[in-house]
Automatic annotation (TrEMBL):
It comes from Lacibacterium aquatile. Belongs to the peptidase M14 family. InterPro entries: Cytosolic_carboxypeptidase (IPR050821), Pepdidase_M14_N (IPR040626), Peptidase_M14 (IPR000834). It comes from the Bacteria. The active site is at E339 (proton donor/acceptor). This is M14-type cytosolic carboxypeptidase. GO terms for molecular function: carboxypeptidase activity. Pfam families: Pepdidase_M14_N, Peptidase_M14. SUPFAM superfamilies: Zn-dependent exopeptidases (SSF53187). Its cofactor is Zn(2+). Keywords: Carboxypeptidase, Hydrolase, Protease. Residues 114-375 form the Peptidase M14 domain.
Length: 377
């Protein structure tokens, strides 16, 4: 059986240079569709003979958006059409990344991280909508005309304390989709007393994919015109970032007591919430709330930690063009950028799966109680 490599599906991305010899398959990361300098995400299907070892060389890994992301990285593989994912032996010499795997079935999927596709998003929203406390509307449209969907979870008709979740500003950071599965699963469990108490005081506005064009294209960081949506919050426009514009205007209308913006970090092998640093105008009360939230989450989920983070001096950190600083300053929110690894959690490593969809779901599950500690008096 000759080798076949396919990316002609939702989120598929790799460039094939040569795929004749299974021991020397030469590939290149394909850049974001309108941002030629940003290459990192990959997801492809490889059809080959089971039992015949594969060696895949990604020759431009050293020129990717985050070359540090390949140090101690292991690629994700699925032998069953994306139902289960595990890690496989991967090495990086500073220039070329080499992935080794012996297929157990006729088609293997390889990906940067377990994908969370548009269908996965629709199924997650559809499942939530089986609950009468959940409703859905379309806030606007992406550059390519896809709907920007907002799931609202509210018990009763009276307005409650608004909490916003956003995921996929950086579309390759699929961790956010799995977090929302865990979060919504617990929030809507009518037998869970913490969820019931939380829904007694708060309502949840969930934008599960704010960048559907980027997700569909298999981009890491940008939308269909190359905009990094997490740099658009101060000056969003219909031409460049309609995805942010429609969400931002609705956030201004509803207000937000908490904003949780879900991300993945290419380099750091830890779960963390970005250091608030010196956001101008951030109040002592916001700092205190954040400290209490961190403490509550530490007690609930040992994947989360507060030791490793971005240095507070990152030059653009406080810029309100990012969602969390923007919502901190403009909405007075406790606004948090949640970062999860693409690699593994070095504090609690998992040799088989690395950082995984299940661990993302568990983190989302624990966000329910962490938010309850902040919002339920
Ligand atoms: Zn991100």
């Amino acid at each position: 059986m000759s080798l076949v490599i396919d990316t002609n599906f939702y989120g598929g991305a790799i460039t094939v240079i040569e795929a004749k010899d299974p021991r020397n398959v030469t590939l290149a990361l394909r850049p974001d569709t309108a941002a030629p300098d940003i290459a990192q995400w990959f997801h492809f299907r490889l059809y080959s003979t089971p039992g015949v070892a594969l060696t895949l060389k990604i020759v431009n890994a050293g020129k990717s958006a985050y070359p540090g992301g390949w140090e101690d990285y292991r690629a994700c593989v699925s032998p069953d059409g994306g139902i289960t994912w595990q890690r496989t032996e991967t090495s990086y010499d500073g220039s070329v990344m080499t992935i080794s795997y012996t297929p157990v079935s006729g088609v293997t999927e390889f990906a940067y991280f377990a994908p969370f596709t548009g269908e996965d998003t629709q199924r997650m929203l559809g499942k939530a909508l089986q609950d009468p406390r959940a409703s859905l509307d379309v806030l606007g449209h992406s550059i390519q005309g896809q709907p920007i969907q907002r799931l609202l979870v509210r018990e009763g008709s009276a307005k409650k304390t608004p909490v916003w979740f956003t995921a996929r500003q950086h579309p390759g950071e699929s961790q956010g989709g799995f977090v929302l599965q865990g979060f919504l699963g617990r929030l809507l469990n009518a037998a869970d007393p913490v969820s019931r108490a939380l829904l007694g005081v708060a309502e949840f506005h969930v934008v599960a994919d704010i960048n559907p064009d980027g997700t569909r294209a298999g981009n890491l960081r940008t939308n269909a015109v190359g905009a990094n949506l997490n740099r658009e919050w101060e000056a969003a426009t219909q031409e460049r970032s309609p995805e942010v514009l429609c969400v931002r205007e609705e956030m201004k209308r509803t207000g937000a007591s908490v904003v949780m913006d879900l991300h993945g970090d290419e380099a750091l092998p830890y779960v963390f919430i970005v250091n608030p640093g010196d956001v101008p105008g951030m109040t002592n009360e916001q700092h205190d709330r954040r400290q209490r939230f961190d403490k509550a989450l530490l007690g609930l989920n040992r994947d989360f930690q507060t030791e490793y983070n971005y240095p507070p001096s990152r030059p653009d950190h406080a810029a309100v063009k990012k969602l969390s600083p923007w919502a901190t300053v403009n909405l007075g929110a406790l606004a948090m950028t949640v970062e999860m690894p693409f690699k593994d959690n070095a504090n609690l490593p998992d040799p088989t799966e690395g950082w995984s969809p299940d661990k993302c779901r568990r983190l989302g599950y624990d966000f329910v109680a962490a938010l309850a500690s902040d919002l339920v008096k």
